[in-house]
Specification:
Strand content: 25-35%
Number of domains: 2
Number of strands: 8
Distance between the termini: 89 Å
Shape: elongated
Number of helices: 2
Oligomer: single chain
Helix content: 10-25%
Strand order of the largest sheet: 7-1-4-3-2-6-5-8
Largest sheet: 8 strands, mixed
Length: about 150
């Protein structure tokens, strides 16, 4: 009888440990299984050179979301799907710009706030966008006299 209670308590302890390890794995891997605290917003750009899935979306230097997917639409423009935190409200006149972070050149999207009273609903499109500046193209224009 005594061995059974010890084995049962050890089994419960191991089971709790496995549940905790699974929870930490999901949280540290930034996976969402139960509930999603984000809503989708789309934007079209002429060029998103260097931008990757999972890159940050920032407003005023604060991370407000991530890039969920990048695809090409019918008009040969880059269609970017962003996941924005639910507590944040974006208006219909915000500007989405592809920017470079630091010297390494990691790309992210910066959202500049607008002054409109019309709020973007989940799944709607940001109409004002600025594409990434291609430094290689600018340097080649300068070197070969295209400026």
């Amino acid at each position: 009888m005594k061995n059974t209670s010890i084995e049962t308590s050890v089994g419960i302890f191991v089971l709790i440990g496995l549940v905790c390890v699974g929870y930490l794995t999901i949280k540290l891997g930034k996976m969402e299984l139960i509930g999603d605290n984000n809503y989708p917003v789309y934007a079209k750009f002429q060029s998103v050179s260097g931008l990757k899935k999972g890159s940050h979306v920032e407003m005023a230097g604060v991370r407000i979301g991530t890039i969920d997917s990048i695809s090409l639409d019918k008009e040969s423009k880059a269609l970017v799907k962003m996941k924005i935190e639910k507590g944040l409200v974006l208006t219909d006149d915000v500007i989405a710009s592809v920017k470079t972070a630091g010297m390494i050149g990691d790309k992210y999207i910066r959202i500049s706030p607008g002054g409109s009273d019309v709020i973007l609903k989940p799944g709607e499109m940001i109409t004002e966008t600025e594409s990434a500046v291609d430094l290689e193209e600018l340097i080649s224009k300068y070197v070969f006299g295209g400026v």
